[in-house]
Amino acid sequence: MSKNRRTPSVYSNNPAVFKYGMMVLSVIVICIFLPKQPRFRFEYEKGKIWMHEDLIAPYNFAILKTPNEIRADREQVLESVYPVYDNHTETKGEETERFLAEFEGKWKGSGQEDREMGLYSQTVTQILAHIYDRGVIGLTKKFQTKGEHYNFNLVTNNITEKKNTAEVYTRETALAYANSIIDSKSSITEKDWLKSLVGDYIQPNYVYNERLTDKLIAEAINNISTTRGMVQRGELIVANGSMVNNEVFQKVESLRMAYEEEAKIGGDRNVVVIGQFLVVGLVVTLLMVFLYLFRIDVFSNNRLLSLILLVVTGMLIVLSWSLKLKLSSLYYIPFCIVPIIVRILFDTRLALNIHLLMVLVSGFFVPNSFEFAFLQVTAGMVSIYSIKTLIKREQFLISSVIILLTYFVAYLGIILIRDGSIEDVGYASFVPFIVSVGLTLLAYPLIYAFERLFGITSDVTLMELTNTNSSLLRELSYKAPGTFQHSLQVANLAEAAIYKIGGNALLVRAGALYHDIGKMQNPQYFIENQTKGYNPHDGLTFEQSAQIIISHVSKGIDMAHKHQLPESIISFIRTHHGTTRTDYFYNAFIKAHPDKIVDEQVFRYPGPIPFSKETAVLMMADSVEAASRSIKEPDAENISNLVDKIIDGKLAQGQLRNSNITLQEVEAIRAIFKRMLMSIYHVRVDYDVKKTREVE
Known about the structure:
Layout lengths: L8 H4 L2 H19 L21 E2 L4 E4 L2 H14 L3 E4 L2 H21 L6 H18 L16 E6 L2 E6 L6 H14 L6 H8 L7 E3 L1 H13 L4 E5 L4 E3 L7 H21 L2 H26 L1 H5 L1 H24 L11 H9 L2 H16 L5 H18 L7 H26 L11 H10 L2 H12 L4 H7 L5 H9 L1 H21 L3 H10 L27 H21 L4 H9 L7 H10 L20 H16 L7 H17 L10 H18 L8 H7 L1
Parallel strand pairs: 3-4
Antiparallel strand pairs: 1-8, 2-7, 3-6, 4-5
């Protein structure tokens, strides 16, 4: 569990007033944005049993058509609307006159004999007259969906007649006709030349009128009825225990929409607001009770509480905004972003609790609320489970893929249950889930923003801090290589122990890597960095040596603040020695000055003592690892005795009394430390004959 930076005064002045004021403000803001019309009180699904009392029509209402029925009507209407073409009667005269005006010049330019010019001119004139009398049409691709030919309306001098494209020429078929006529004329010698000439004067005279056609289509679509039949007042719609088949579902759906439409006009908004205030207030209260019972640290911290309420309120405002915009699908909303943010910033239980409460509130205002709740709860649970232990950044992407698959499987299952046919699956319905999961990736920058604004240390930040290539750890490995190796070993010991007893492994590893950074100031004064034959303490008094050793804590805190390390990491630096003594220099002083009164505080670390499991585990791991280096014969017995001596000493000195750690957990830590140290020093454990037989 991450600890956080100093609490600003805005949160600490009158904390109780601020806390409950935030709760009330959140409830008010949520209620302001939520839809205000009364809600249809029945829950139903196609293919399920009607679990309510008999539903009697309270008034007359029309039965709405299903989307498939409206789509079929639309297709039928579109088939009945013919495209409109204008007959440009002047095209025949214009093209014929242009031909006659240009023909003589082209004839002479080709070097033909003058006596044949009249024959050629007459032939082309007759061809053009026939083609334009029959008509040349410019086809429109969108009306060629069911074959090459289609019906159309031809407007000639405001008179409309129905025709088919098979009855007229296209430019290609007109040119083919002209070529065939020219080929049939044995008197024409320059056929190829004449064929190339005719094509220049064949243009469509039946021209598509897009504006008028679109107008006719729009009018036809607007005239499509969205209803089919009526339900009379007092008529039984569905009886208790009956199956909600397609017909019943459509009647109930039509009643719901009629009810909500009427409620917009006649419903009492004030009464609705009171109901919303009660429901939302209850949910926020349940959240506060959960925090008080299971996360008192968050409940007591108004800064963290305000973050949680901000996230929940923000998501419900987005939902309300989407309802008012009437999005085609509410599944575009990235609901899973909330449990991911809460999981990364806090823990799994809190993330799941908040997500469930938020979905419950949303269910009052969305259509098909059970379906919505099922999809969002399952996806939210998967999003939480998939990042239970965040180790790598790509887990966000992996989690997104798993969430998307969950949406797909759950939604496909719902459709199959509801419709009973895989043919009815509209694959476009899966697009909102893809968009939603894509938007869920915004959790990553939002987590960073919340960390900065509210002073929280998330697993993402801890993951970055544990990278040994960070500037501060690189500096430690260069200036104090022995201390760096010691820190790595402590990190391994502490991480293994915290995994065993339960806790934030990333946090304790990060704390272990940085707990001794203060030794970089005077690395040669610490034994792990000293070379043989030289000890700088030889020229100092015992008090001076003790103060240099003790000062690595305060210097480490200063360095951590300078490099802007989170307060949760600084807590490990501050507490890893607690209020223990530098016993070596203390005992040496007493031995050297038996008659002198000793000020014990000179030899004692300032503290405080560890306050959590993580800081307690680090203290024990630090002491055990450091002491293990002094063992001359690291066998199983010596290592076991050393671990017991170190941990018993911490317990006897009261260093673990504030860390909320049990004796059972301490015993588990002993076993972990002993096993890992034996592995480090390659100690072979001797088994007696009985144990060997049991293993065999």
